[in-house]
Amino acid sequence: MTDRDQLVPAEPAPGLALETLDRDSPLVVGLQVKIGSPYGWKCVTRTDQQWAGWYAEHPDRLFRLLTVQGEPAGLVTYDLHPGDEVEIETFGLVPGFVGTGLGGYALTLALEQAWTLTPTVARVWLHTSSLDHPNALRNYHRRGLRTFKTEVGDRT
């Protein structure tokens, strides 16, 4: 997404909110493991040492907690890149909230936040995989994101 005006918001989901999450919160690791387990995300098997490396790799990484009525429902992680580019490094809902109709509005909130993270955001982007939820790519496209590049490979 190269312009904020490309965002096509989903209908609001009552009770869904996006809150700042401290990088030291145990929710960061716990939620990534919960969210990624059904899809084979590499983070599921990271050791404590690998998690420390992940944190150190991008000290400016920002974390946001998706909540429903105050209950943790998902996670958004942002990486700020040179040229005022914002990567949504992690986006997802915990299994108990998948399939409840929250994904579109959760992504809307994540994208709206992304466009505020630097004074002049030039591009917001993310990665997905055919191993992710079957509705993920459709949701990304519905919110205004466009496929930039497709790669074929395996997860090893």
Automatic annotation (TrEMBL):
It comes from the Bacteria. Pfam families: Acetyltransf_1. InterPro entries: Acyl_CoA_acyltransferase (IPR016181), GNAT_dom (IPR000182). SUPFAM superfamilies: Acyl-CoA N-acyltransferases (Nat). Residues 16-156 form the N-acetyltransferase domain. This is N-acetyltransferase. It comes from Actinoplanes lobatus.
